[in-house]
Amino acid sequence: MSARAPYGEETCAAATNGRYRVVERRSFGRYALLTLLAPGVAAVARPGQFVMAAVPGAAFHLRRPLSIHSVQGDRLRLLVEPRGEGTTELAAAGVAETLALAGPLGNGFPLGDVTEALLVGGGIGVAPLQAAADALRARGVPATAAFGFRDAEQARLAGAFEIADLWVATDDGSVGRRATAVELAARVGAGPGTTVLTCGPAPMLAAVRAWAAAAGLSGFASLEAHMACGTGACHGCVVATTEGYLRVCVEGPVFPFDLLAVPAGEEAS
Ligand code: FES
Q: What spacing in Å lies between the alpha carbon of 168 and ligand 1's midpoint?
């Protein structure tokens, strides 16, 4: 499939379809970090890309989109929140079980010109930021992470990350500072030229974009969307941009801040 990408990344070109074995499973509260032996996917995956995944033979057969948390050699890590039937089955997958995956999909974060980064994540949206941090660290690029969670249970997700400069806040103050992700990001701060990379629920992304604009920072947001096909066929995942409606699964999930249309009401904030 040829796909238009807003800033030059070729998408889906290297995607494969296969079944891969779970070789490690770690629990962080209700969240699961699954490690799969998936050399074909791991070899070509870029930070910010995702896979469509399902448990073969399970009652819920539709594949669900999961961000690639990280890659280590020929292994792929996926951080799973049991939200609905499909993700609950995926999160329960044990060692030696097999998952059906299509991927890697989407465009990923364009990190080539990044010289300093602030990674801002909220909830399960933090998932792809480990891969971004790993890629930046490999190039010697300084990166700070500010993660916001609802409460102590959700903050257990932070245990799935290995980022040296990681700050955590919760809405109820039960872990870290009592703050939202964007309030934490503002407190951590970012110097001129810092690129903001963010992923999380839509209201959080809008707040991060507004803060970054006020601070004179550019950045990229990885959007969450309901996805049926994950490959551009159904148009069920479109998002309004300054260049019209684009598909999150193919032209995204990562979009430059200035490409995203301003949500109603944000202009006044
Ligand atoms: Fe079908 Fe994006 S999920 S086009």
A: 32
Residue of 96, 92, 51 whose CA lies nearest to 70: 51
H helices of 172-249, in order, are 181-188, 202-215
Q: How far is the CA of 169 from the centre of ligand 1 (A)?
A: 33
Distance (Å) from CA 230 to ligand 1 centroid:
5
Same domain, 122 and 234: yes
Average pLDDT rounded to a whole number, residues 234-261: 95
Instruction: Please tell me the predicted confidence (pLDDT) of residue 265.
Output: 45
Is 74 inside any structural domain?
Answer: yes
Domain shared by 85 and 211, yes or no: no
CATH of the domain at 35: 2.40.30.10
Assess whether 174 and 251 both reside in one domain.
yes
Average pLDDT over residues 183-190: 96
* Average pLDDT of the residues of the chain: 92
Kindly give, in sequence order, each residue whose CB lies less than 8 Å from that of residue 233, ignoring residues fewer than 6 positions away.
none
Alpha carbon of 102 to ligand 1 centroid (Å): 13
Residue 143 clears pLDDT 90, i.e. is over it: yes
Ligand 1 atom nearest to CA at 65: 3
For residue 234, the ligand 1 atom closest to its alpha carbon is: 1
- Paired sense of beta strands 254-256 and 64-72, if any: unpaired
Q: Which domain holds residue 152?
A: 117-268
Best of 12, 234, 251 to mutate for ligand 1, by most ligand atoms within 8 A of CB? Answer: 234
Residues 239 and 123 in one domain: yes
- Single residue among 105, 130, 163 that ends a domain in this structure: 105
In Å, how far are 34, 45, 123, 246 from 31, measured between CA atoms? 10, 22, 11, 30
For residue range 39-66, list pLDDT tens digits in order. Answer: 999 999 999 999 999 999 877 778 999 9
Residue 3 lies in a domain: no
